[in-house]
Design brief:
This protein is an all-beta fold and 146 residues long. It has one domain. Helices cover 0% and strands 45% of the residues. The chain is built from no helices and twelve strands. It has a seven-stranded mixed β-barrel. The chain has a two-stranded antiparallel ribbon with strand order 3-6. It is globular and about 45 Å long. The model has no long low-confidence stretch (mean pLDDT 91).
Length: 146
Amino acid sequence: MVDPYQANLAAKVKFTQKRVVKGRFVVVLEGTIENRGIELIHPGSRCVRQGEIFELICTDEQTARPAGRVDRATYLGFCEVVQPGVLRVGDRVEIHGQAIGRVAGFDETHFPNHQNVVIKTDSDKTPPSVSYGLEDEIAFVQDSQS
């Protein structure tokens, strides 16, 4: 069996349209860990089901990418999927309609309990300046250039 991501075949398939994935915070976290050693998986997309819980982690490491490593991790919280779909590297991540960064990749350290979604932010936006709390919405949006 050939993995299309590892064989670099997946890059030939373009997302022409993608539903916005929406979630709601069920836990709010604070804190940054240096030298976390998150190993991002090679695939650049993940399906998320309604009711599924995933963890959100920000990094300002601009080299963060699939199959890469992330050491500086700022924890945002856990979200429940309310509008399922496909999360994809490069998706714009918004809280209250304000962009906080882009999906950099996925980590399966705690799978099958949950997946981590790593968000690449600007160095001056980690943690993001937008305030959020329990039940607040987060959205994952495909840009037209994605």
